[in-house]
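#structure-requests
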Amino acid sequence: MIILLIIAIFSVLFYILFLQTKEKETFDNHNDVSINYTLNNEIDGPIAYLRNIRTFSNGFYEQSSHENPDSDDCRNDEECGINGVCLERNEIYRCNKIINKEAFRFVEENRSHIVIPNVNPERIVMSFIILTDNVMRTQPVLTTSNNSFELFIEDSKFLVKTYSDNEVKKYYADFTLKNNKLYEIILRSDNNTLNISLDRRILSIPILKKRCTNDNDCIDNGICLRTSRGNNYCTYNRIELTFGMKKETDKQLFFGGYIGEILFNVDKGSKNVERCNFDASSYKNQRICKQECNRIDECTQANCDSLCQFTPKCEYVAAGRHTEDCIQLCIANNDCDANHCNDQCRNCGQSCPWNSLDETERYDSDYYDKFGRPSPPRISIMNMSADGTKVSLRWKPPYQGNSPINGYTMFLYKTFDKSEGVKVNNISTMNCGEYCNYILTGIDSTQTYTLGIKGYNSFGLGKMSNLLTFKPDKKTISKDFSIVPNVDESVIGEFNYCNVEEE
């Protein structure tokens, strides 16, 4: 009995030493080999699953020089100096040096990968080393089961991906990878930010949240967290980290090379990774986002630029008395571009503020002239002639003010050639009923024009209409909402009025 007990004890000790060995071991060459392994070089360290990993070594080779990679630089080991070795790869002989670090050999054909289960996604701290012999091949380095972030090698670059709904955002490291060269990676995920050091080049990346309506929208057993504002998003208690494998819709991608020195929940990089814990997701304006980020001592300009790069440049929301009024108010903000303004003001639906205004409210201080002058009209281009020399305009007579509208004044100039000045035309109300119609003639089909219209009555000129920028030969209105110079009625006499016959 004592002999059997001793044998049992030695068997257990041998199994533990087997799992923790630092020497090269080769496992049976068959598919789907799975071994439990503890990380951090500790018997009671975090658990990991080795899948089809058949080689574990405490020494492997890194190429010494990466100049002229397609040419031989040695013929024998002696030419590589002390501790150097001349190795042949793809019929090219290069000097290599031994790397005395623990690493696992990943073989693409074997479907090698490592899984770390039960990871808290709100805080991930880890570091590892990698080496591959083909940096041109797209291959996964580290992925998450909930698709919060992924690290790839692609086109000789490190690539970090983040996902939100169907949107994928990509961040490339600004240096080129080399075959058979060792790289160290340190990463820290805090709240909504991933700080990652790729060979001492640091990226700060916002981690996107997947929107949801219910728990079924959240993969990997996520929960749909409901907020008071209705911006529901997926949250996860535990996820898996996977080294060397990415599951695609119709295939699986695998890493080829070495990954080792895996330290999980060990803050090895506290001096190597900058602690920029700035949350850019709460900001709606890019300029303000960067300003607030730069106030944090631990955040560099590069950190802030990367964290805020997808924050909207404009925080404007639909306002004004109608769509065109809204657009003009929007583009007056230097942080707003035409595309954003066009989207905010034309796609606001029932939330458009002018939909809830009655006839009286439509003419407040932004729209109503206290001196009794007409409100600004809303003009549209209806048609253009085949030769591009005539343009048909249409608008609905606006609020007339304290006396009937006597006519309209049109301001027209060449958008990209303001040296010719502004052409001013008077337009009568002859062709005005429910709508006013006017045909602009004598224009150059190859030029881009900007025009606006003001109504006038016995009290004077009203405010400018929406502005239209167009090029006749394009037969379309552009999204260039250029501002026409503001012309006050006190200087209107300095311009040459032209009465254009109605057609």
